[in-house]
Design brief:
The chain is mainly alpha-helical and 330 residues long. It contains 14 helices and two strands; from the N terminus they run ααααααααβααβαααα. The longest helix has 16 residues, at 295-310. The protein starts with 7 loop residues before the first helix and ends in a 20-residue tail after the last helix. It binds protoporphyrin IX containing FE and 2-acetamido-2-deoxy-beta-D-glucopyranose (4 copies). One 2-acetamido-2-deoxy-beta-D-glucopyranose (NAG) is lined by residues 92-95, 97-98.
């Protein structure tokens, strides 16, 4: 078969046809989506985040996690931002989301954007842009955020528990929650590297200190003894489960590859972190070593994996809506 393209118009038309016919996903997301309709979107988001960071060093971590928890439940559609309302059961009320935060700053960003380009920028895109700028502000490397997502008119509270990885999931379950949304081992390891910033509550890891494998008095053998002792002081047995500790004890607020060198030194905080390195025979071990040995490898992969995560089932075209208020449907 021979096809002659007589004009670039025909070429583009054929390309679009092929993309549609073969279901090339997310053809509509692009780095320049708002170039004409809201050219200042990034600087507006950055301005709000720089301000917010002065009151809360953790805001970047909160926003990166918010994008993750949005994308893993029915795709990156801002469904996590919806409050309870008629017909909406909020995803915020699920235990997996109980410590997710940053909603107020998302509202501030939305309000600022509605001022400069009303009705244009989706809440789902705000989460993707805010995650990238948060990484930059923390010292990480920028990537080309893909935009053009639209916002859902529904939430899916029932899917939160089965979609969001829990720190108590087995390693196989954590992996399967990634493969379920089309993310592979490299994505799993790179994205777990987000734990180079932020905090976790004691209750998310104390069983590693006091009752590993349900054996009273047992400590996780894949935990460095000195680090375990430090954690026991911060999180005493029967103490408050909500006390916070750093996910990366070496540089708590710096976006760098120390998360991976920590894992190499048995200083991963959550079991799901340490499992990436301590599960013998797992393909994740070599990836942890690669990122531990090269920060630029980690940064490149992290950006690509954030784009991959941001591509999970976006609403595009005429699907969904551009919410005026991220907390409720229009
Ligand atoms: C691999 C499976 C994952 C598990 C089991 C997991 C689990 C957790 C847990 C238990 C916390 C502490 C929350 C609390 O105290 O309640 C946390 C915090 C955090 N997670 Fe993950 N996570 C995973 C993957 C990810 C991914 C893919 C990202 C983003 C790309 C991410 C970003 C964050 C950030 C930034 C924080 C700190 C949030 C803050 O300081 O408020 N996590 N994660
Ligand atoms: C958009 O950004 C440009 C350059 O940064 C600036 O000059 C202009 O005032 C901004 N416009 C709005 C509406 O914020
Ligand atoms: C520990 O016990 C709980 C409740 O009995 C059970 O659901 C869980 O699977 C056990 N965990 C391990 C690692 O054996
Ligand atoms: C914590 O509580 C358990 C169960 O009530 C008890 O057996 C244990 O001795 C307590 N540990 C400390 C350090 O108080
Ligand atoms: C922010 C928020 O609404 N968090 C809720 C998450 O779910 C728990 C219940 O598991 C609620 O208590 C929190 O208020």
């Amino acid at each position: 078969m021979k096809i002659f393209m007589t004009s670039s118009f025909q070429f583009i038309a054929a390309t679009l046809f092929l993309a549609a016919a073969f279901g090339v996903s997310n053809a509509q997301l692009s780095a320049t989506f708002y170039a004409n309709t809201c050219p200042n979107v990034s600087s507006v988001v950055r301005g709000i985040l720089e301000q917010a960071q002065q009151n809360d060093v953790r805001i970047g971590a909160k926003l990166i996690r918010l994008h993750f928890h949005d994308c893993f439940v029915d795709g990156c559609d801002a469904s996590i931002l919806l409050d309870n309302a008629n017909g909406i059961e909020s995803e915020k009320d699920e235990p997996a989301n109980s410590s997710v935060d940053g909603y107020g700053v998302v509202d501030d960003i939305k309000a600022a954007l509605e001022n400069v380009c009303p009705g244009v920028v989706s809440c789902a895109d705000i989460l993707a842009i805010a995650a990238q700028i948060s990484v930059s502000l923390g010292g990480g490397q920028a990537w080309e955020v893909q935009m053009g997502r639209r916002d859902s008119r529904t939430a899916n509270k029932g899917a939160v528990g089965s979609s969001i990885p829990s720190p108590f999931d087995t390693f196989d379950i954590v992996r399967s929650k990634f493969t379920d949304v089309g993310l592979d081992s490299t994505d799993l390891v790179a994205l777990s590297g987000a734990h180079t910033i932020g905090r976790a509550r004691c209750l998310t890891f104390t069983r590693r200190l006091y009752s590993f494998n349900n054996v009273t008095g047992n400590t996780d053998p894949s935990l460095d003894p000195t680090y375990a002792e430090t954690l026991r002081q911060t999180c005493p047995e029967n103490g408050s489960g909500t006390t916070l500790t750093d996910l990366d004890p070496s540089t708590p607020d710096g976006f760098d590859n120390n998360y991976f060198t920590n894992l190499q030194n048995n200083r991963g905080l959550l079991q799901s972190d340490q499992d990436l390195f301590s599960t013998s025979g797992s393909d994740t071990v070599a990836i942890v070593n690669r990122f531990g040995n090269s920060q630029s490898d980690f940064f490149d992969s992290f950006g690509q994996s954030m784009i991959n995560m941001g591509n999970i089932s976006p609403l595009t075209g005429n699907n969904g809506e551009i919410r005026a208020d991220c907390k409720r449907i229009n």
